[in-house]
Amino acid sequence: SIPAGKVLYELEYPIRSLRPVVATTDRQFLVVVGFEKMRDTLMVHVAQSGAVVHKIPLKYTNMKDFHSILAIPNKATQIALIDTDKGN
């Protein structure tokens, strides 16, 4: 049997493929990889209400598809996208 649990967060956002969701280290925000205007976009949501506060299109030099998204310890406002070559 599956143990009962409670819902911690509930969000709706458009996606191209399912990617992990990460909470910032201070647990104030949730960062998801959504799909908007035909490109991957980091969407920052307030953890308590689920409201979108930022939409950041992903584009940087030599961008590769990343396989992991991580919260940076001791840096509440930073996350890292880890691709096959390096962290960005």
Tell me about this structure.
It holds the Pfam family Beta-prop_NWD2_C. Residues 1-88 form the NWD2 C-terminal beta-propeller domain. The protein has 88 residues and is mainly beta. Helix content is 0%, strand content 40%. It has no helices and six strands. The strands form two sheets. Strands 1-2-3-4 form a four-stranded antiparallel β-sheet, with no helix packed on it. A two-stranded antiparallel sheet has the order 5-6. A hairpin with a 5-residue loop joins strand 3 (39-46) and strand 4. It starts with 21 loop residues before the first strand and ends in a 5-residue tail after the last strand. The model has no long low-confidence stretch (mean pLDDT 83).
Sum up the overall morphology in one term.
Answer: globular
Q: How many individual domains? A: 1
The percentage of residues in β strands lies in 35-45%
Number of strands: 6
Percent helix range: under 10%
Question: What class would the helix/strand composition place it in?
Answer: mainly beta
- Rg over C-alpha atoms, rounded to the nearest angstrom: 14 Å
SSE series: EEEEEE
Straight-line N-to-C gap: 41 Å
Count helical runs.
0
Average per-residue pLDDT, rounded, comes to 83
Biggest sheet overview = 4 strands, antiparallel
Low-confidence stretches: none
Strand order of the largest sheet: 1-2-3-4
What oligomeric state is this?
A: single chain
